[in-house]
Amino acid sequence: MRSFLIIFSLSAIAIFVFHFQATVYATLTQPWTELLAKISASLIHLFDDDVTSAGVQILTDPSQNSQNFAGVEIVAGCNGIEAWLVLVAAIMAFPPYSYLRFRWVVLGVIVIMLFPLGWDAWFGKSLIAFAFVLLTQFYCPIGWQKLWGLVIGFIAIQALNVVRVISLFYLGQWDKGLFDFAHYYAWQALIILDALVVFLIWLSKLPNENPPSDQPPNNRQPADNASTAAIQQS
Questions:
Q1: Distance, CA of 99 to CA of 79 (rounded, Å)
Q2: DSSP per-residue letters across 133-150
Q3: d(CA 124, CA 21)
Q4: 3-state secondary structure of 115
Q5: pLDDT 10s digit of each residue in the chain, 234 long?
Q6: Alpha-carbon gap, residue 195 to 155, rounded angstroms
Q7: Fewest CB atoms within 10 A around its CB: which of 36, 90, 112, 204?
């Protein structure tokens, strides 16, 4: 458990440092947030013809509701990405072992950080090294289970997040106080709870595998036979 907590904490920090880079946000997060707004607006449009989406905003005519509510804007922290990244860190850190021996992982990180010698982009090297460490976690007895856990987790979190965006869109037109409570407290907790439930379900579906031992099975067999012989003699 201690190894899991250490690897999870370090992975989460590294993932979020990567996530909050301006280039990463503009290249990956922003387009996804705009797509999320379009999907939510399309679903709302099935029941409300006055709804439109513009970038990360879902807009309506404020004169049509008592709260003078113009719409919602999906910003960082509201697109479900952060909750999924926490799930990524948890899945990649459990169980904290790989078929690759730890010294080879460390050696790979050192090589990435030191070569090529003329490349001084230490931040870029650090991101590549971190990506390498994450990839080593797929090379383990449950590599495919980890991959499917990440995919299903993303779908589950984003599906609930669409419900969240749509509900906030209508709550804002109905009651501003209830909108604020749902926005800042209720839905934040529910999205994190969704990620936790996905992780617990993923854990329950894992095969009962033991971590790979450093001692080959053939080297352990004589000791097992000796123990059996001793029991038979006694």
A1: 35
A2: HHHHHHSSTTHHHHHHHH
A3: 11
A4: coil
A5: 677 788 788 888 888 888 888 888 888 899 999 999 999 999 999 988 888 899 999 998 888 777 788 889 998 889 999 999 999 989 988 775 666 666 777 777 778 777 765 555 767 777 777 778 777 777 777 888 898 999 999 999 999 999 999 999 999 988 889 999 999 999 999 999 999 999 999 999 887 655 444 444 454 455 455 444 444 444
A6: 11
A7: 204
What would the two tokens of residue 39 be?
Answer: 């999907």
Tell me the backbone φ, ψ of residue 53, rounded to 5 degrees: -120, 140
pTM: 0.77
- Continuous H helices in the chain: 2-19, 22-24, 30-45, 81-93, 102-114, 122-138, 143-174, 176-181, 187-204, 217-233
Amino acid at 146: K
Instruction: Read off φ and ψ for residue 71, nearest 5 degrees.
Output: 145, -170
Whole-angstrom distance, CA of residue 13 vs CA of residue 5 = 12
Contacts by 33-38, CB closer than 8 A, 24 or more apart? 33/74, 33/75, 33/79, 36/74, 36/79, 36/80, 36/158, 36/161, 36/162, 36/165, 37/74, 37/165
